[in-house]
Each structure stands twice: as structure tokens, then as C-alpha cells.
Amino acid sequence: MTTARPVALVTGASSGIGKEAALGLVKAGFDVVGTSRDTSRVTPLDGVAFLDLDVASDTSATASVKEVIERFGRIDVLVNNAGIGSIGAAEESSVAQAQAVFDINVFGVMRMVREVLPHMRAQGRGRIINLSSVQGFIPAPFMAVYGASKHAIEGYTQSLDHEVREYGIRAVLVEPAYTRTGFEANSTQPDMPLQVYAQQRQTFGRVMAAAIKDGDDPAVVAKVIVAAATDPKPNLRYTAGTLAGRASILRRFVPAWAFDSQIRKMNQLAG
After folding, report:
1. 240-243, Cβ contacts within 8 angstroms, sequence gap of 24 or more
2. Under a CB-based contact definition with an 8 Å cutoff, are residues 110 and 54 in contact?
């Protein structure tokens, strides 16, 4: 089976940002394939075909892309949205726990990119959209492992974009701030908690819960993803939402000492 319509593959499309992105791409004229680790539990979405995918598995990544090509004959856009949060002080997460987060947030992206690139090169066009975060370019106290994974995605995507541009492919970043999703509830908690960090970790948890409650609707981020997928001349970075835009401007133009002070104030850190 082949289609003349552009085809988008969206990972982690069963809820939140991924779900809204999938629906937004349908409205923009794409045939959309969404993925979930267990599609038997997914509520059907109009215009979205679902596949099982575990981005932490090489075999699963290979099989999912193969199935999309067999069904549609092409992949024009890959949205790497699947990810996991991680909360806790840097010292409180074991290396094994950090590796598990990176296996999804970083190596999961790399697996999917490696699978789609040969097809995009063969067709002479493609767009890879990697979901980063404001915590990919600012400090993330009490989310050090998560922040590190998003910093890694920033560096990877910037380099990838230069490598594939001559083949008609662009790799871009979408950088949301706090979004009203199940991020906090689905984040890993420290597997080596230390009493010395307990009070500040609890404070951070309250700060994050309030920020998510007042955060952007996932549809705001989805709109930016659709723009990143369809812009004829895409930007490398797309901030999503007012807070993300402000954070980007502050990071670029505010003196380092003032920015540092603001980070500590926002996160209610002493000193």
C-alpha cells in the first residue's frame, strides 16, 4: 500500500502532547501513525492508526518502522515524543536508574532516527522533530537526570541536522515548558533517596505540581509541532508556550548571575 498524502509517525501518541500532535497532524493533511507500548489500552483517535512500540527496544523500533513503510510506502515526518520524567537530586539516582531514563529519552530517539533515515534519504525529503524541553537549555535542579537527557537531545539534534540537510531532511527541536499532562505522576522517583535532600525534594514537588497545574495545554505544544512539521524553511528550535519563550530569551540575554539567581528563586532553593 502507498499513499500520496504525507505520512507522520508519532511516538508516545496515546495521551498528552503526543495525542494532540497526532490529531493536529491529521487536521494538517497527514496520514498519521501513532505508537504506544500497549495499543490494547489506547482509546482510538479519528484518523490515527496505532502500532505497538517500545522505543527502548532495537527490535521494536525496527519492526514499527518496517510496518509503516509496508502499509504506507513512506515516512515524511517522525515526531520523537515518547519519554519519561525523572525527579530527585542527582545523588539520589543510581547509575542504573539514569541509564534507564536515557534508554528511553535519548537512545530511544536515536533508535527511531536510525530506522527512518534510510527511507527519508531514499525519498529525498523528511522532517525529524525531537521533543526537548526548556530543561534542555536551562538548569533543572532536582531533575538532573531528566535535564541531562534533554541536554543530550539538544546536542544530538543540532549535529544531526547538519549531517542530513543535504539529503533534503531537517532535524528540529520543540521545547515546551510545564504542560498539563501526567508528567509528574509518570516520572521515576529516586531509587537511592537521601534524607539530606528530602525537604527540598518535597518543596520542589510542590513547585512542580503547581507549575504543571498552571501550565500550557498540550494542544499549545501540538500546534508548534505541526508548524515544525510543515514549515517550508524550518527553524532549528521552536519554543512552545509563553513560559518557554520567556525562558529562552532570558537565557540568551540576561547576565549569568541574574539568571542563576532567578533559577534558585523559581525553585525555592536556599542561598
Report:
1. 240/174, 240/175, 240/176, 240/177, 240/216, 241/176, 241/177, 241/179, 241/215, 241/216, 242/216, 243/134, 243/177, 243/178, 243/215, 243/216
2. no
pLDDT tens string 168-213: 999 999 999 999 998 877 899 999 999 999 999 999 999 999 999 9
**Would you say 236 and 158 are in contact if contact means Cβ atoms under 8 Å apart?**
yes
Query: Rounded to two decimals, what is the model's pTM?
Result: 0.95
d(C-alpha 223, C-alpha 227), whole Å = 6
Residue 1: predicted pLDDT: 62
Cell of 95: 547509575
Q: Active-site residues: which are they?
A: 14, 132, 146, 150
Which tens digit of pLDDT belongs to each residue from 19-38? 999 999 999 999 999 999 99
**Cα–Cα distance for residue pair 21/50, rounded to 1 Å:** 14
| Sequence spans of domains, the chain | 7-266
Cα separation, 211 vs 214, in Å, equals 5
What does the alpha-carbon distance between residue 94 and residue 240 come to, in Å, rounded to a whole number?
Answer: 32
CATH of domain 7-266: 3.40.50.720
- Per-residue model confidence (pLDDT) at position 184: 77
Q: Which segments of the chain have a pLDDT < 50?
A: none
Residue in the structure block whose three cell numbers are 530543561: 135
Scanning 187-234, the segments in alpha helix (DSSP H) are 195-213, 218-230
